[in-house]
Structures are given as C-alpha cells and as structure tokens.
Amino acid sequence: MTKEELQNKNVTVIGAARSGIAAAKLLKKLDVKIFISENAAQQKLKYFDDLQKLAVPFETGGHTERALDADVIILSPGVPGTIPVIVEAQKRKIKIVSEVEFASWFCAAVIIAVTGTNGKTTTTALLGQMFIDAGWETFIGGNTGNAFSNFVLSTTQKSVVVLETSSYQLDFTETFHPHISILTNITPDHLNRYENNILQYAASKNKISAQQTKDD
To answer: C or N: which end of the chain has fewer Cβ atoms within 10 Å?
Structure first.
C-alpha cells in the first residue's frame, strides 16, 4: 500500500508498546489519520510519554468500538491475533497487518530477514556487523531493539536492512518480501499463541519466505 493510498484511510494501531509507537510515528510522518488503542491502563504503560507526545487520538484500558472505525489495523507483535477486537475486525473484513508488513511497504533497501525459535538475535547481529564491516549502509532491527518503522524511511537502494523477525511479527504479513530469508530452527515454543499446535507455529515461521521468488 502506498503513502497516497493510506492517506485516504483511517488507520488504527493496536498496542502502544515499542513497535506500536514506532508504527504510529511513521504514520504521522506519512500524514495518515491515526487512532491508537491499548489494552493496558495508562499507569502501566512504559511508553505513555511517547504516546502523549504523538498528539493523536488514543485510548487506554481496553479496546472500544472506536478502534474498529478503521480501514486498516496495524497490530503490534505483543498483541495476540485472537483477542476479541481482532476477531471482530476480521468478521468486518478490516485489513489487518503487522508492524513489519506495514513498514516494509516503504523500504527501499534489500531486506535480509532472520527467524527461528533460537539463534535469531545472534544471527541478525552477526550479519549486520558483517555488512557494516564490508562498508554497507546497514540498518539492523525488527524484533531486536529497533522497530522497523523507526528507520525504514531512511533506507535507500544502496543500503541493506537486516531484520530479526519473530513469529508474532510474521503473523499478518501479506507482501513482506525479503531478498534473503534465514530460518535457524523450529522447536516447540510460544505455542500458547498457536493453539498449542507446532504446525501452526511452523507455518507462521515459514511466512518469512512466502513471497520469495526464484530470484531471491
């Protein structure tokens, strides 16, 4: 989806932690109409000061009907896709995407994405350092430290992005297209988010390569 397409839509960000705040900041830079909905109470929000500084409409302490007044919902990775507001959004055919999917729409660089139950943080850090040492303009982020939305507008065709991607970030991806994808391993973990079914968990991990072609 392009900047121009988004500017004609109402976008709700579900979750006001690190990735949700980063997505909201990117939306604001793109001049998009935003609403942020967070389940936690204000006093429990680590990023409440950032939320206030955004100066956009928001709610805390639960997801109301206002969150569903949207053409697009951007879902933070810490928020399960099974919560009632997301189930209702799916019933209403509202487009739901992850923060990684959303940020990827505006990435000009080659993307190298890493996932796996174990080893993805180390692999991402090593790859990023290798590209830095080789003289590339390199952006490192995703699940490790720096949300993709924070730096995506700084990417160019001469830079490389190395992303750590969790299964939660790969859920609700549609067009996310790394040039290189790396899957370190799949072992039983986080199964509470996948109906205690390792096949569902594995399917989520395998979305890292779903859009790749023979040229990738």
So the answer is: C
Predicted model pTM: 0.94
CA-based nearest residue to 172, from 88, 72, 92: 72
Spacing of C-alpha 155 from chain mean position: 17
Q: Could you tell me the two tokens for 42?
A: 């204000």
SS3 per-residue string spanning the chain? CCHHHHCCCEEEEECCCHHHHHHHHHHHHCCCEEEEECCCCHHHCCCHHHHHHCCCCEECCCCCHHHHCCCEEEECCCCCCCCHHHHHHHHCCCEEEEHHHHHHCCCCCEEEEEECCCCHHHHHHHHHHHHHHCCCEEEEEECCCCCHHHHHHHCCCCEEEEEECCHHHHCCCCCCCCCEEEECCCCCCCHHHHCCCHHHHHHHHHHHHCCCCCCC
- Tell me, rounded to whole angstroms, the distance of Cα 206 from its chain centroid: 16
Q: Encode the chain (216 residues) as per-residue pLDDT tens digits.
A: 999 999 999 999 999 999 999 999 999 999 999 999 999 998 888 889 999 999 999 999 999 999 999 999 999 998 999 999 999 999 999 999 999 999 999 999 999 999 999 999 999 999 999 999 999 999 999 998 899 999 999 999 999 999 999 999 999 999 999 999 999 999 887 788 888 889 999 998 999 999 999 999
